[in-house]
Amino acid sequence: MGNYIEFAFIVEDREQGSDVLIAALAEIGFESFVENESGFCGYIKEEDFETNDLNRILSSLKDYFKINYSKKTIAQQNWNKEWESNFEPIEIEGKCFIRAPFHEEKKGFMYDVIIEPKMSFGTGHHYTTQLMIGALLDLEVKNKSLLDMGCGTGVLAIVASVMGAKPITAIDIDEWSFENTIENLQKNNIDNVVVHKGGAEIVAGKEFHTILANINKNILLRDMQVYVKALETEGNLVMSGFFEMDVDEITLKAIELGLSFLEKKVSKEWVVLRFRK
After folding, report:
1. How many beta carbons lie within 10 A of that of residue 262, not counting itself?
2. What residue ranges of the chain are covered by domains with CATH 3.40.50.150?
């Protein structure tokens, strides 16, 4: 694997501005983000970065937010050190504790999940991941088939497994996420998750009671019909990765495809939606 580029963004309106910028960067190949007091750091593979793409985004936002950035190249072998310096445990709804292997287990939680803090989106720190886990914790998935689409670190598949879901499929188009998911499954002693590298084409011909998709809006709109076709009757489709301003467009598409709207939750303008077939 090649090097990554770390961009340190300083955003004037940190809360809203960072979220808008993160969503835009995710669509041009940025794989993961670590928030800090002044903004956040974003990471992209060196070979995937296009200066024109970044300039286009910054130009479109210049009238709304003041954004500055610096960048540096980080060799692949240094990622663990970079992530360990930024990774803190996450508590979700008093039920799920997400930690790295170098953190101590915390008593009082139903589910203890270990995530190796490498360069995969979905360590639990981003609002969308927390929203998705919260939505999952509210579902009855024991002995139900489940798909984690765009699995990142595999954290959703892992939580689903410890909740009793089976069988489980996890899919991500990124090689790093594919490998990191397999590693995290092993660290949590989980053997009922099949991991695939690829996109929505892998879903064809399969059927799931619950589908979790934490991906950006454009991909959700493009691939939603594939998810719906693979969803069992009375099954749940849970989606995040977009803002509250995108809810109407996502909901309209879901209803057009025959789904019924069930629930919406919001955190810092990010949204999770749940539909039923």
Report:
1. 13
2. 124-276
pLDDT tens digit sequence for 75-98: 765 555 665 666 678 888 889 898
Question: CA 146 to CA 158: how far, in whole Å?
Answer: 11
3-class state of residue 248 by DSSP: helix
Token reading at 134: 């919260």
Q: DSSP alpha helices (H): ranges in 28-72?
A: 51-61
Q: Which CATH architecture has domain 4-83?
A: 2-Layer Sandwich (3.30)
Arithmetic mean of pLDDT, 52-81: 83
Give CA–CA dist 41/82, Å, rounded.
11
The owner of tokens 């203890």 is: 112
The residue with tokens 């639990």 is: 124
Cβ atoms < 10 Å from Cβ of 114: 19
CATH class given for the domain over 124-276: alpha beta
Cα dist from 8 to 18, 22, 86, whole Å: 11, 12, 13
Tell which residue, 234, 227, 232, has the closest CA to residue 257. Answer: 227
Contact 155, 183 (CB under 8 A): no
Amino acid identity of residue 199, one-letter, is: G
Residue limits of CATH 3.30.70.980 in the chain: 4-83
Amino acid 83: pLDDT: 57
Residue type, 148: D
If pLDDT is split at 50, 70 and 90, which confidence band does 26 have?
Answer: confident
Burial of 129 (0-12, 13-18, 19+ CB in 10 A): buried
Q: Specify the amino acid at residue 57.
A: I
Two structure tokens written together for 101: 């292997």
